[in-house]
């Protein structure tokens, strides 16, 4: 299937809600908020309008099948750092969609002149960990029992990071473009 990646817009809120509803709850634990709630999507769109989040979606046949967000605080002490949040439909995992979305958000991070990216996920999400590591992210922290699911079960949260300048230098050294 062919997907199209583009910016997330307010007119996509119903499609995003349907996408969120289709995801296993465990996939959403790293977000900090319940994406299955319409008010969370409204807040997300408001943060996009305010310039705190850049977000892309992947669509196939009019349905959202993946999304990536770059969360950053241009007024904070860590204005040079962006947090990457990636979600891909269970049916589309392993097909390169997550990589395509991450590469799109990398370009936005470079345009925002960010120096470092972080990503959080539960360590048992092996496919996600492997994808991020294949793009240069490395484990930086493990927060024990950091998030709880609806049943109250605690889960660890792994924090991975990527130094964008170092990554770009490695890409140049090996002769391929980072743009």
Brief digest:
The chain has 179 residues and is α+β, with helices and mostly antiparallel strands.
What would your notes on this structure say?
There is one protein chain. By secondary structure, the protein is α+β, with helices and mostly antiparallel strands. The chain has one domain (4-173): Aminopeptidase (3-Layer(aba) Sandwich). Helices cover 31% and strands 32% of the residues. It contains five helices and seven strands, in the order βααβββαβαββα. Strands 1-2-3-4-5-7-6 form a seven-stranded mixed β-sheet, with helices on both faces. Helix 3 (97-111) links the parallel strand 4 (81-88) and strand 5. The two termini are 25 Å apart. The mean pLDDT is 88.
